[in-house]
Amino acid sequence: MTGGALTAGIAVLLVSLAALVGPLVGLSPWWITLLVALGLGSLTLDAARFGGRGGHLLAEALPGGRLRLRRIAIHEAGHALAAAIDGLSVRRVLVGTLACLQAGVESGGCTEFALPESVRLPAEDLRRWSRVLQAGMVAESLIYGESVGGDDDRALLGRLWGLSGFDAETARMEQRRARREVEQALRSRRAEIEAEAERLLTTAPRLGRRPPA
Fold this sequence. Notes:
2 strands, 70% helix, disordered N terminus
């Protein structure tokens, strides 16, 4: 779900509650009208200024927000574990919209790697990147049965293969092969994925909550 949809849902929920509960507690229709205006205003501001990320911030701050953050953490833990297996250096891992905003990254979660020295990579290096970049989706699938994240990973992977001069059919074949390899590597490491995700969650900031020092 996009940030705009989340913000819209929250605004509609608040307005609906006010309409239902307001008359029971003697709330003036003027207050309900004001709440509608504030809800629509926040939706417009979130879309215009923050690209809809305000909805994600609110969703992560709500009581069920930890479940959302855990899924993000599982995804990023998959990247980190696969990188360790394949010898790629991880610079930092961000979990949650607030952590990404604080770092100036437009995402809900992010694993940053040390960049390769050249954009044109040999096939073996591309295979390593193919395993690592698909590992987040694989980790989600192992834990939840399906993956809902990974569009940015797939886009980056496609660019890496394209910039390195390989044709589309070779790139697709190699990426499918890398997916099978990382699935095999992570399947026996489910406990490690979950343990790393829990560790990431302890340091993930949320609105109204500071991570432990």
